[in-house]
Amino acid sequence: MIRVLLADDQALVRGALAAVLRLEPDLDVVAEIGTGTEVLAAAQRTAPDIALLDVQMPGRDGLTVAADLRRALPGCRTVICTTFSRPGYLARAMSAGAAGYVVKDSPPEQLVDAIRRVHAGLRFVDPALAAEALASGASPLTGREADVLRAAAEGGTVADIARVLRLSQGTVRNHLSSAIGKTQARTRAEAARLAEESGWL
Q1: What is the C-alpha to C-alpha distance for residues 197 and 201, in angstroms, rounded to an integer?
Q2: What is the pTM of this model?
């Protein structure tokens, strides 16, 4: 049996996914979790083979949790199952240690196939998203530019961003200017929105 931990903050989606997986004779859903902060403790308690994680969850997002699981439970492999079919999220998921990435509007058979492949030591990426990721390339933003855009997305002034990130206001302006140029935006708010839509933040 392949032991699966399922984490999704939407109860209806979580229940539907669990029901689909329980129809398979070789899959056993050993935990259903609603927040990212609960995943690690539940995984340590139930010893799953696969953690099926949503990206956006309360507490800790699925990408952060994937990295936590890779460090704490290297025998548990992660599959991201999300509504976000964005190349940036795919790249971040793979660098966090996820071995699979499935979009929620995929057929149930594809999710089951992904779980089995990842359990067998392979990787699985939604084919359409894989093609899009190859076409779009990696994020053009540096880590610090992404940090500054994240802070800018919350609507603070340059002084606010500088204080939060412990940078000078001039450094914040430089990073914002660079990020605006790289995203081909007109304003920092538009740059933050475009970067978020691309999955770079």
Answers
A1: 9
A2: 0.68
φ/ψ of 125, rounded to 5, equals: -130, 135
Helix (H) / strand (E) containing 2: strand 2-7
How far is the CA of 141 from the CAs of 36, 86, 154, 200, in angstroms? 26, 16, 18, 8
Tokens (6 digits) for 174 = 């430089």
Torsion sign (Cα): 80, 84, 90, 93? negative
Residue type, 138: A
Q: What is the DSSP letter of 84?
A: -
Give me the residue label for tokens 């450094």. Answer: 171
Question: What is the DSSP pairing of strand 50-53 with strand 2-7?
Answer: parallel
Residues 112 and 115: their CA atoms lie apart, in Å, by 5
Per-residue model confidence as pLDDT tens for the chain (201 residues): 999 999 999 999 999 999 999 999 999 999 999 999 999 999 999 999 999 999 889 999 998 999 999 999 999 999 999 876 666 777 788 888 999 999 888 899 999 999 999 999 999 987 766 545 544 556 788 888 888 888 888 888 899 888 989 999 889 888 888 888 888 888 888 888 888 777 777
Q: Which of 85, 80, 116 is nearest to 100 (CA)?
A: 80
Beta-carbon count within 10 A of 142 CB: 13
Distances (CA, A) of 21 to 95, 111, 155: 26, 9, 41
